[in-house]
């Protein structure tokens, strides 16, 4: 099968979905009003509530949701064949992710920019709100652990990526001051910053003295490191500490100082990166060597395929970003379609190239099946396979292999870092909200809530020991992250459906993907929690069992409550603004 043909089919479906389906949802279902006073204007504070140009906000929103997950999930899911992964990415993006991301943004804008967890109180009751907030809290905690683990390992594996990543921080601060203090345009400075980043990437990939190789500094992989931990474990610990210090600062600064300008740079980086990869696809014109469907798997595709693709098709975390930060920055309500739905489409485009980079990497179907000999092998090798495959595509436009590999790793790390500090900021909001709910106002203080978020995230990624030894928390939590993430998306779609029903509007656009997603996810989670991760298993299974069981019970409770609202006419409180 020709890879370019598959890419064209996917792009056409994405374009039609945005042009027609999202327009129908915006005009006929959500009924966006260009004159509605959005929370960014009503509650403008210069810190969280900041009216923002829709292109800049799309950059922040998209790069916040486009972490490593839409790359890693599809790169693993091709284990069952490229066709099932492709179909779920394309159709899931158009009919599920687009409605979910767009809907949570519109719902939050109509409710003072509050999170979906808080809005659950007005739609399905106080108890559901508390349960929902705890599910969200556990999910963002796992997001922090997973992405901190991914970034630290990529820094260790690709030391040439460190300099360009850290150069971006002062550049973003400079852009923030230039735009918001001196009223400059953001486009040209961000393009300059991007050029500086890629210039640093080229230099670092060619000159070893510009690479920050902590393992090499300690004598290589056999080095002793600190406290006898070994060089790799010591390097991992150092990077985790550095990352936690960074996200503490980034998540407490006003959004215009670092978050928005850095995300705008990353949005350009994404466009450039995707441009390089898709141009490389055209010039190399590769053939898909992986099988369309794989009949020799050790794990059934049903229902695990839909959980594994995760953010490549739909993600509950996107709803947290939509209602947690993006809704507070939306300038006009009609911008929600561009920011929310098109953000989901951008995620689908990224997931599509992830699939194509992996399934064109191997010389034959036999080589693919050797690399993807089991689901465990797919999990272990997915990210590395993408980096290698993407580097080959980038080489199609003439980039040397070392530079191509560095640029691909920078793209992944940049998006993961963006998701990480947005997630910590969201966790701060939730901790503060729970603190006020349980009469502990000290937790509502920004620095206290951020400290709790950062310290708990660091503990979760560092303490558990798994097959990779010290610091395996992110690796261990990945299977649960996928199920919890999809479950959260299903519950958020349920809230959108309840909201639309209360307003007397057609809620089919939300209820159909909701039923499909909850059915698949609850089956997968039940199988994993009570069979695969049963309490009598290993220490690592115990971690998954405890987190998974709590999320599963809370989710079922919320679903039953919401079902009563939808079917029995129980009257919840009306949304504040509508």
Word description of this protein:
The chain has 22 helices and no strands. The chain has helices at 3-30, 39-42, 54-65, 69-77, 82-109, 116-124, 126-157, 162-180, 187-206, 214-217, 231-252, 259-284, 304-309, 316-324, 335-359, 365-371, 375-395, 401-437, 446-462, 473-502, 508-532, 539-568. The protein has 578 residues and is mostly helical. It is globular, with a radius of gyration of 22 Å. 73% of the residues lie in helices and 0% in strands. Helix 9 crosses helix 18 (401-437), helix 14 (316-324) crosses helix 20 and helix 21 runs antiparallel to helix 22. Keywords: Cell membrane, Membrane, Transmembrane, Transmembrane helix. This is Carbon starvation protein. It is found in: Cell membrane. It comes from Bhargavaea ullalensis. The chain crosses the membrane at residues 6-21, 62-80, 86-109, 130-152, 158-180, 187-207, 227-249, 270-288, 300-321, 341-362, 397-421, 442-463, 475-500, 507-530, 542-566.
Outline of this structure?
With 578 residues, the chain is mostly helical.
SSE map:
Blueprint: H1 3-30, H2 39-42, H3 54-65, H4 69-77, H5 82-109, H6 116-124, H7 126-157, H8 162-180, H9 187-206, H10 214-217, H11 231-252, H12 259-284, H13 304-309, H14 316-324, H15 335-359, H16 365-371, H17 375-395, H18 401-437, H19 446-462, H20 473-502, H21 508-532, H22 539-568
Helix pairs in contact: 1-5, 1-15, 3-12, 3-15, 4-15, 4-17, 5-14, 5-15, 5-20, 5-21, 6-7, 6-20, 7-11, 7-18, 7-19, 7-20, 7-22, 8-9, 8-12, 9-12, 9-18, 11-18, 11-19, 12-17, 12-18, 14-20, 15-17, 17-18, 18-19, 20-21, 20-22, 21-22
Determine the mean pLDDT. 86
Q: State Rg.
A: 22 Å
H/I helix tally: 22
Shape: globular
Low-confidence stretches at least 5 residues in length (pLDDT < 50)? none
Measured as a percent range, the helix fraction is over 70%
Question: What's the β-strand tally?
Answer: 0
Measured distance between first and last alpha carbons: 50 Å
Order of helices and strands: HHHHHHHHHHHHHHHHHHHHHH
Oligomer: single chain
The fraction of residues assigned to DSSP E strands is: under 5%
Structural class, please?
Answer: mainly alpha
Q: Main sheet?
A: none
């Amino acid at each position: 099968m020709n890879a370019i043909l598959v890419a064209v089919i996917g792009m056409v479906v994405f374009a039609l979905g945005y042009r027609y389906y999202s327009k129908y949802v915006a005009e006929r279902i959500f009924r966006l009003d260009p004159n509605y006073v959005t929370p960014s204007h009503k509650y403008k504070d210069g810190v969280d509530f900041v009216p923002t140009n829709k292109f800049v906000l799309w950059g922040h929103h998209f790069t916040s949701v486009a972490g490593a997950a839409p790359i890693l999930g599809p790169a693993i899911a091709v284990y069952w064949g490229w066709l099932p992964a492709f179909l779920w990415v394309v159709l899931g993006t158009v009919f599920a992710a687009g409605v979910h991301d767009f809907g949570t943004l519109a719902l939050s804008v109509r409710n003072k920019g509050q999170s979906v967890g808080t809005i659950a109180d007005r739609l399905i009751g106080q108890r559901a709100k508390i349960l929902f907030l705890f599910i969200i809290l556990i999910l963002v905690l796992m997001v922090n652990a997973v992405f901190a683990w991914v970034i630290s390992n990529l820094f260790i594996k690709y030391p040439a990526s460190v300099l360009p990543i850290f150069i971006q921080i002062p550049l973003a601060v400079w852009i923030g001051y230039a735009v918001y203090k001196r009223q400059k345009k953001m486009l040209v400075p961000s393009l300059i910053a991007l050029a500086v980043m890629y210039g640093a990437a080229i230099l670092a990939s060619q000159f070893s003295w510009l690479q920050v190789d902590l393992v090499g500094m300690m004598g290589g992989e056999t080095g002793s490191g600190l406290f006898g931990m070994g060089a790799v474990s010591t390097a991992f610990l150092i990077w985790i500490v550095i990352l936690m210090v960074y996200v503490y600062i980034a998540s407490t600064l006003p959004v215009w100082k670092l978050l928005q300008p850095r995300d705008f740079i990353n949005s350009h980086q994404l466009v450039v990166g995707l441009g390089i990869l898709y141009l490389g696809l055209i010039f190399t014109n590769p053939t898909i060597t992986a099988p369309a469907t794989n009949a020799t798997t050790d794990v059934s595709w049903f229902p695990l395929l839909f959980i594994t693709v995760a953010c490549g098709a739909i993600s509950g975390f996107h709803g947290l970003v939509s209602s947690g930060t993006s809704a507070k920055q939306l300038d006009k309500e009609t911008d929600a379609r561009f920011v929310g739905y098109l953000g989901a489409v951008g995620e689908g485009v990224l997931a599509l190239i992830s699939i194509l980079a992996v399934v064109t990497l191997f010389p034959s179907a036999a080589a693919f099946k050797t690399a993807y000999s089991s689901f465990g092998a797919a999990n272990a090798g997915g990210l590395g396979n993408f980096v290698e495959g993407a580097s080959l595509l980038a080489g199609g436009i003439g980039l040397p292999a070392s530079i191509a590999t560095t640029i691909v790793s920078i793209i992944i790390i940049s998006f993961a870092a963006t998701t990480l500090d947005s997630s910590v900021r969201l966790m701060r909001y939730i901790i503060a909200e729970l603190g006020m709910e349980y009469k502990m106002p000290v937790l509502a203080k920004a620095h206290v809530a951020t400290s709790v978020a950062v310290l708990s995230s660091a503990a979760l990624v560092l303490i558990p020991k798994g097959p990779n030894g010290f610091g395996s928390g992110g690796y261990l939590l990945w299977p649960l992250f996928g199920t919890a993430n999809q479950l959260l998306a299903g519950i958020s779609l349920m809230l959108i459906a309840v909201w639309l029903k209360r307003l007397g509007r057609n809620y089919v656009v939300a209820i159909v993907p909701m039923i499909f997603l909850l059915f698949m996810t609850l089956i997968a989670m039940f199988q994993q929690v009570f069979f695969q991760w049963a309490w009598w298993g290993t220490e690592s299974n115990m971690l998954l069992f405890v987190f998974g069981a709590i999320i599963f019970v809370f989710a079922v409770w919320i679903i039953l409550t919401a079902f009563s609202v939808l079917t029995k006419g129980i009257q919840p409180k009306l949304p504040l603004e509508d």
